[in-house]
Amino acid sequence: MDRRRRPGRRTPAHPSAFDPVKDGARVLIVGATGEIGGALARALSGRGAALALAGRHRERLDEVAADCEDCPTRTLDAYDLDACRRLPAWAAEHLTGIDLVLTAVGVAAFGPAEELTEAAAEHLVTVNALAPMAVIRGALNLLGPGGAAAAVTGLVAERPQAGMADYSAAKAALSAWLTAVAREQRRRRVTIHDLRPPHIDTGFADRALTGRPPALPQPVALDTAVRAIIDVIRTGGHLPPARCARPNREVP
Fold first, then answer.
1. Cross-strand pairs, 74
2. Strand order in the sheet with 26-30
3. The whole model's pTM is what?
């Protein structure tokens, strides 16, 4: 089910000066029905971005879209990797182009590695790694110089945790892929961001595929993490000491 909106503004003529979250930027957010994706959608819409949203839950998607000028939406099954890859083309058609693709899809599972079923392991890899890879893969030929793609991985990508082996591994796989793609896209001046927020206060751990979460650190407030993520996408810089995101910025 699609919903159309008026096209966003055109990308500025000089891509070296392009700010991917400036007023009029054309942005696809995948995972917009999650807490992080929904908060990012509202924040970017408030900054004047033209959005297209994709997510799993139709009712929640409609709620987020209503807060974002009734932007176009599409429901998404992360297991349909071909459909994931087609999302950027769909967004570009509705927005007359695309400047930023941002994926915030994911699911967790907890417990010792020997207790996880193979079906659950496959699910973790598909949702946390293969689906965002497919979305960004479909965007690469659509993004022009100065454009950007970003995916939320998390600190577990670099600090795997006991009781979260398969979840950590899936996020690490996505992170490694983003690093390699960033190097591939350097000459095209397309920036790839590996977003690694710490534990955020979203209730994500309570919606795990299986198991109970281990003791988790004090969470970062959602609005704090969203501001940090947007700032990193906008500037390409680091945000110590919170380290709410890490850029794979390969543009000179």
1. 54
2. 73-75, 50-55, 26-30, 100-103, 148-152, 191-195, 246-248
3. 0.85
